[in-house]
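hey m, so remember when u said the tokens were messed up on ur end? i reran from scratch. heres the input so u can diff it against urs
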Amino acid sequence: MKFLVRFNIRSLVSRLATRFRERSESLPVSGPPTANRWKGDSAELAAYHFLRRNGYRIVARKYRRRSGEIDLIGWDGDILAFIEVKFRTCLEHGRPEEAVNWRKQKQISRVAKEYRTIHKLYDINYRFDIVSIQGSPENRAVQIMKDAFKEPL
């Protein structure tokens, strides 16, 4: 009898710890805002409004898991889009979408798979989009690349 009580308590503690980890992983990053974080947040907000104007229904922003983060998740009609936002003030280091390399694609794909599993979205159409933003915060050019990459193997 004592063994069963201990097992149930351990099981309960384990489940509570898992739930706490899941909630804390989806919390925003804390700490003092930096110039880069301000620029990134500003670009994500511009992308959010751009996508809303173009018919997307955004369901998550800054979706964080242990394996990484997806900037925006939204429905474009009946297709779930996992959206990466990239911003550049100048093209000295390349175009914004060029920063989504194979490693970043793999990380986005891994988080997207976790999202679909957690929300039980098994038989849906989904894709990976990139929102490319160029220019200064006052004068931006926003472009969306739908189905920018396929899920890496």
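this time it looks ok to me. The radius of gyration is 19 Å. if urs says something different then somethings off w ur setup not the seq
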